[in-house]
């Protein structure tokens, strides 16, 4: 828990884990960076807890901005049961944000987190100033409902090779991708103390069900999103097809799109040294 020290923590590996209770759910979260101004709230991906954020992306943001990463209902150390719809997940995210007393935030999201972020900004536009959507796609996006198939297949491949599934799910299996994958997984181990609770199998399955429903649902009217929006992905995303990032870009007015070459679902992690400065620049314009 927070000790009350005045020193500003800008290293995600050293950020304290905090909790806040809203209704019947206690949300676990970490915060770092200088307080004041509009915080950047991080929405995490499928099967991920607080330990799954790349410090090479979090830390550069935290040098400039107040960063908050949280586990939604039933994820990691957060209590409750993971919902099986994106809509309920977005409602829970809004509950967490307002429980902290925040009236306006910037959102950085990845994969499943990007689906939740889209739903939240449509339902609660007053809460969001700027929006970053990475490795994600819109409701009704072709291929999203196949995420479970791809995920289970790559989990099997990882088991057979004694690897982390993210090495297969997030990165190309060429020499460049394999190097980037190993480096990414090593960075996730930099935090050695106060690590989060693993995501349960029940929670993981509920998330997959929510993603399937999202992929098969009626497309939303994204033209209502007026917030400045940055969209990023790799050019060979097997989990959420890269063309869906282009679809988001076409449908969100004034949005910006960055596609990283020779990279997959985790393109922003492979290109963290390029993406992080672009992220900072987008937020501080």
Automatic annotation (TrEMBL):
Which Pfam families has this protein been placed in?
Abhydrolase_1
* SUPFAM superfamilies noted in UniProt: alpha/beta-Hydrolases (SSF53474)
The GO terms this record gives for MF are:
hydrolase activity
Q: Which Gene3D superfamilies match?
A: alpha/beta hydrolase
**Does this entry carry the keyword Nucleotide-binding?**
no
**Keyword field:** Hydrolase
Residue span(s) of domain AB hydrolase-1: 40-269
- Record protein name field: Alpha/beta hydrolase
